[in-house]
Design goal:
Blueprint: E1 15-21, E2 27-33, H1 35-44, E3 48-51, E4 56-59, E5 68-75, E6 82-88, H2 118-122
Parallel strand pairs: 1-6
Antiparallel strand pairs: 1-2, 3-4, 5-6
């Protein structure tokens, strides 16, 4: 299924994407997509992103196995932000071992426990 909406990508060709658990509405992560990763997400039914730090296209869960099965893709009124509702397979979405990337309050206090070992999954500890 191809998109019929014209997304407004930024000057780097990216659009911010919020990933939300379809079952409990928890916000799991925020990432960026380019036209290719959005098209691949639509075509495969699994999230794909553009990594700004690594400068490459990636499928969520390609290393960890914690893939995100797409259930709904929504866009905001300005066509410059995407909300994707997913079933999160595996214990968590965050590379730090937490279920969500939003596990700390504004003071840096962790509000939730890790749900998997990032060292076991990725071979090293992430900051």
């Amino acid at each position: 299924m191809a998109s019929t909406v014209t997304m407004k990508y930024d000057d780097k060709g990216l659009v911010p994407v919020i990933i939300q658990d379809v079952r409990d509405s928890a916000v799991l992560m925020m990432a960026y997509m380019n036209e290719q990763s959005l098209s691949e997400t639509i075509a495969t039914g699994y999230t794909h992103f553009w990594s700004r730090s690594r400068g490459k296209f990636w499928k969520k869960g390609e290393t960890s196995g914690h893939v995100q099965e797409v259930k709904e893709i929504l866009i905001d009124c300005d066509c410059d932000t995407v909300l994707i509702k997913v079933i999160q397979h595996g214990p968590g979405a965050c590379h730090t071992g937490h279920r969500s990337c939003f596990y700390s309050d504004i003071n840096g206090v962790e509000l939730s426990e890790k749900v998997f070992s990032e060292e076991d999954v990725y071979g090293k500890k992430h900051d």
